[in-house]
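User:
Note these tokens:
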Amino acid sequence: VKSTFDLHIQDCWEGLVHAVRHNLLAVDDFDVREYFYYDNPQNGDLHEVVRGKFIAFKGPRDDCQKQDFSVHPTTYIDVFKSKGVKAVIRLNIEEYDKRTFVKAGIAHHDLFFVDCTTPSDDIVHKFLTIAEDPSSGVVAVHCKAGLGRTGTLIALYLMKHYLFTARQAIAWVRICRPGSIIGPQQHYLVQQEKRMHQLGKSGVQGLGITVSDESKQQDLSTADELAEMITTGMNHRDGRRMLSAGQSSRDGKRTLSKSVSFNFNTSRDVSNVEIMGSNQVSSLARLSLRKVTSDPGLPASIRGSNIGSFGDSKERKMKDTLRLSSRKGRL
């Protein structure tokens, strides 16, 4: 299938720099062990996309299916409580009893729209209103795979509240949760960029609408086909991730970025950000920094582990570079 929307490495660097500037990535606090633990489909397939606000995760099921690597909603209760999650938003069809979360003290909202399509204004308004309510705390969002619909709505929030461009938002969401935002959703976000920026600057809640809008008519002719392609691809990817995690566990180490440091100099055009080392863009979400893992939501077997694959000198150099840039007002 020919791509109709190309994202470039410059978009990824701009998204990363913008995220660091707004403290969505705290270099000193990034826990690579935790990232890969929850990245594993057996452990929930979840990622924090907006620090302190959004967790994206794969849709749970009461009837767990081994072939699609789904898990029961009770799997998430303890970790959600440890992360301060106060609300769950479901964007796909009902595949579990929402009372599982409600009984645990976590509010639950249904905002369904069709897989691989774009949301109506009514859905967007409700989503933003929930997220902007201080009582919602951290919001955990899922659709079927936790990629397309989930990533699209979170990207709208990023554009409204942090003034990301559409491309920066898409890049950052994908850095955090690879595979997010699909097909027409990319073009939709570009179309919504100016609108989200205006709404963010005005301080209006949600979309500022007082009456629910009718859902706009969408071309659903290719949605089912695209959704099937995504499902097949993600099941294959999940299987590979589980095999990779198992091999890493047996080896007693993770396969991480081996030797890369970053020099953010945003006084120049972001395309001139210097990269020392050779690595792929996907590794940007996997910066391995030495840190003692202490999250009570993690199993005891990995709590208290001192981890990190950077050499001490490279780790210090990276952190010092970021701190220096921050003090100079560059980040």
